[in-house]
Design goal:
About 40% of the residues lie in helices and about 25% in strands. It is of the alpha+beta class and about 500 residues long. The chain has 3 domains: about 210 residues, Bira Bifunctional Protein, Domain 2 (BirA Bifunctional Protein, domain 2, 2-Layer Sandwich), CATH 3.30.930; about 120 residues, Rossmann fold (3-Layer(aba) Sandwich), CATH 3.40.50; about 70 residues, Translation Initiation Factor IF3. A 7-stranded mixed sheet has the order 3-7-8-14-11-10-9, sandwiched between helices. The longest helix is centred in the C-terminal third of the chain and has 25 residues. The chain is globular and about 80 Å long.
């Protein structure tokens, strides 16, 4: 007797069809979905847009350059936010919230800051029908607001330190936009701290930079290079900026998080002084540090494949999807829902797809959404008291006893998390090269996408020439914990002051 339609689909999904035609039928549902995703190596930019669309992460709003964050995308941000917030609070950070609007007179108190952000500032000129006496900018960042607050509340060393953070959105009038990577309004956190001493502020700057490194490594499964920005690449008004630079699949760098040491520049501009233990009036020292929804774009470009999104389990809104096979047969749905309940009770983020769609369609949809694992359960599995766990990252199928799945799934997910990091790190390490001469650097960027280590005199004009010749490669961060590979600048031949990671960037 030939199997019925549902049973045939079940057999096909297990690779047990009678001939090659059955295999072809098995792949039809997947093709229907995946054909909408351009292969990465054919057109990486289009692939990225396709994945964002097909995984339903966000959509363009009617406000040009701004995004609607859809449930799938915002849920990723919520998990990142929760992880970072926990890490922040473990270091003594407290959350606050300050206004969206900044009076123009406050913004102008710090000249370097104003100059750095002036092209991107959006201004509010009217309240209702009345013109404002002083225009307000929609915050591009909040240093001036925090300094204004502290100027009124900090008087003594007993009032310090202030170690605060806020989760909010900011508006920067970008000329070109791209989902998650660059939009006019975006979500982020901005930490702001005020300290009694230079040393304490510098220590906090570096501490939060390391917090970001840990989160990218442990939670996002994203490797990176990191270091201090060159003088002309620092944040507006900063004395030092520390950055994390991740490498995307197309070989471009993505500035993924930054931590800034401001010294006393901002506090002095706002006349923030405190009386020390010796009753002497002293300057205070400030830091700020930020991580944005740009990180979601990084996740997509580091881990995604030609079939869609691939999410590390630690930031996956759904860690596992239960997919019943031949669900019309007696007992299948009951068993699948019992498994769902057991996994939920154990703390997993898990859902079930008990729709009337074919198993092939369900598998494809799960893969496009980047769900780290799926559990296939049908009559054959129930008979053997087992399930089949399929990993999204490498499609490995793992047979697990029904009695052990609640504990084994966590082991599988943690293995996926580590394997994804290792795979991405191998890619990063294989795309870091060195160059001593300009000819070497030019050839390396032609042959090997990624970062090139090279020495530099520190002159921005030399960097500009390198950028022109290489088609966009610039310093991403300085390398200060390794011996320099040359004593001469890669461009001008003068004595080198720095060795840096060079790369093309978003």
């Amino acid at each position: 007797m030939q199997p019925g339609t549902s049973e045939r689909v079940y057999l096909e999904s297990r690779g047990r069809g009678p001939d090659g035609k059955e295999k072809e039928k098995r792949n039809m549902a997947k093709e229907k979905l995946v054909k909408n995703i351009t292969p990465r190596d054919k057109n990486f930019a289009q692939w990225y847009t396709d994945v964002v669309r097909e995984a339903e992460l966000c959509d363009y709003s009617s406000v040009k350059g701004c995004l609607n964050y859809l449930p799938n995308g915002y849920a990723i941000w919520e998990l990142i936010q929760a992880d970072l917030d926990r890490r922040f609070k473990e270091t003594g950070v407290e959350n606050v919230y300050l206004p969206t609007l900044i009076p123009e007179n406050l913004l102008e108190k710090e000249a370097d800051h104003v100059e750095g952000f002036a092209p991107e500032v959006a201004w509010v000129t009217h309240g209702g029908m009345e013109r404002l006496q002083e225009r307000m900018c929609i915050r591009p960042t909040s240093e001036t607001l925090f300094c204004d607050l502290w100027s009124k509340s900090v008087r003594s060393y007993r009032d310090l330190p202030k170690v605060w953070n806020q989760w909010n959105s900011v508006l920067r009038w970008e000329k070109t936009t791209r989902p998650f990577l660059r939009s006019r309004e975006f979500l982020w956190q901005e930490g702001h701290t005020l300290h009694a001493t230079y040393e304490e502020a510098e220590e906090r700057t570096i501490q939060m930079w390391h917090v970001y490194e840990d989160c990218y490594r442990e939670t996002m499964a994203m490797p990176f290079v990191s270091g201090r920005k060159a003088e002309h690449e620092k944040f507006a008004g900063a004395q030092d900026t520390y950055t994390i630079e991740a490498l995307m699949h197309d070989g471009k760098a993505l500035q993924s998080a930054t931590s800034h040491f401001f010294g006393s520049g901002f506090p002095d501009a706002f006349d923030i002084k405190y009386v020390d233990k010796n009753n002497q009036l002293q300057s205070a020292y400030e830091t700020s540090w930020g991580w944005s929804t740009r990180s979601i774009g990084g996740l997509i470009m580091v881990h995604g494949d030609d079939d869609g999104l691939v999410l590390p389990p630690h930031v996956a809104p759904v860690e596992c999807r239960v997919i019943p096979i031949a669900q019309h047969k007696e007992g299948v749905l009951d068993k699948a829902h019992a498994l769902l309940d057991a996994l939920k009770k154990a703390g997993y983020r898990v859902k079930i797809d008990d729709s009337e769609k074919s198993p092939g369609w369900k598998f494809s949809e799960q893969e496009i959404l980047g769900i780290p694992t799926r559990i296939e359960i049908g009559p054959k599995e129930i008979e053997k008291n087992q399930v089949v766990v399929v990993r999204r990252d490498n499609r490995e199928k793992i047979v697990v006893s029904m009695d052990e799945i609640v504990t084994k799934l966590r082991e599988i997910l943690e293995t996926v998390q580590q394997d994804m990091y290792d795979r991405a790190n191998d890619f990063l390490q294989n795309h870091i090269d060195t160059a001593v001469t300009m000819d070497e650097m030019t050839e390396k960027f032609k042959a090997n996408r990624g970062f090139v280590k090279a020495c530099w005199c520190g002159d921005p004009e030399c960097e500009g020439e390198v950028k022109y010749v290489t088609g966009g490669a610039a310093t991403r961060c300085l390398i200060e914990d390794e011996d320099m590979i040359s004593d001469k600048c890669i461009w001008c031949g003068k004595p080198a002051k720095h060795m840096a990671y060079w790369g093309k960037s978003y």
